[in-house]
Amino acid sequence: MPRMLDVSDAVRAEIGDEEADRLLAGETAPGSYDCTSCRAPGDVEQEPTSTVLFVGEDTAVLAFAHAACLPSQVVKVTEEQLRGAVRSITADAAAQGGVPPQDAPAAQPVAPQHPVPPQTAVPQAAAPQAAPQPGAQPPVPEQAVLGVTSGLVLISGELHPALVVEPTAPVVRPGTTGPGDEFLTLLVEQGFQPVSDLDAVPPVLHGWSVLLAGGQLHAVLMPHPGGGQPVAWWQAHQPLTVSDGWRTAAGKHQQVVVCAAPVGSIGRQPREDLLRAAMDKAAAEGRLVAATLPLAGTGS
């Protein structure tokens, strides 16, 4: 009977007292599992374990994590993210356990009790446009596409997991069409800080977080403008695979350094040393902002 399982008040409120009590009694919780954060095996009867409830628009999935990796929590995601998380969780469990995906004890569907807040829209980007022809309709600004690169960065002699965010076009303030690029200004208004170097870990930005589920990167979450559960500032169309070293460092620090730069500042670098060099150059030129974000739901 599981005796080391934590079901937080937030998870209990979503799944109901009856289901929570069944989990704690060992009726529905698996004895062993693959941690939804670090993907290493876990045992509910041998080590502290957290229940992690992923809630989409219409469905919810209950997963399990080492308490040292994540606390028991509710994570609001889109339905597409939820399906991606289920695929990655069950596929890994099936591959490791040699059982069909539908039987893998890594995640289980549950009925959510509360509606999920809408996702925020991606900011509009003032993308370069060809000169309009006489009588032609004015060009419509394209959506900003945020490119995200993961890598390990050395700060004060220690490796930290990092995400580097760079849009594909200039970003203007929502509701406007430019010209100009206010990407960094908008992030500074949200709490990111300009950095001239990466000699120290940036301050923690409260309310923001990085969603790592099934050992893959799913989203960067920001506070809901109207309050309540966080929403996605950036989300992967498909869960992004990160290196074992990145995932290990994220589990160790329980946070991720997120750096952002305007279009054309960093580029897609094939190696981490080149990525770091590009980041240092952007910082020296005043074109880099950064913040440290906890893993989703850590409460920091």
How would you summarize what this structure contains?
By secondary structure, the protein is of the alpha+beta class. It is 22% helix and 30% strand.
- Quaternary form: single chain
Q: Write the H/E string, N to C.
A: EHHEEEEEHEEEEEHEEEEHEHE
How many strands, which pairing sense, and closed or not: the largest β-sheet?
A: 5 strands, mixed
Low-pLDDT residue intervals, each spanning 5 or more residues = 96-142
How many structural domains? 2
What is the helical fraction, as a range of percent? 10-25%
What number is the mean pLDDT?
76
Q: What distance separates the N and C termini?
A: 32 Å
Secondary structure tally, helices: 6
Number of strands: 17
Based on secondary structure, the structural category is alpha+beta
Shape type: globular
Tell me the β content. Answer: 25-35%
The radius of gyration is 21 Å
Notes on the structure:
- The protein is α+β, with helices and mostly antiparallel strands and 300 residues long.
- 22% of the residues lie in helices and 30% in strands.
- It contains six helices and 17 strands.
- The strands form five sheets. Strands 1, 4, 5, 6 and 7 form a five-stranded mixed beta sheet that branches. It has a five-stranded mixed beta sheet with strand order 10-11-16-17-12, sandwiched between helices. A three-stranded antiparallel beta sheet has the order 13-14-15, covered by helices on one side.
- A hairpin with a 4-residue loop joins β4 and β5 (60-66).
- α1 (9-15) crosses α2.
- The longest helix has 19 residues, at 79-97.
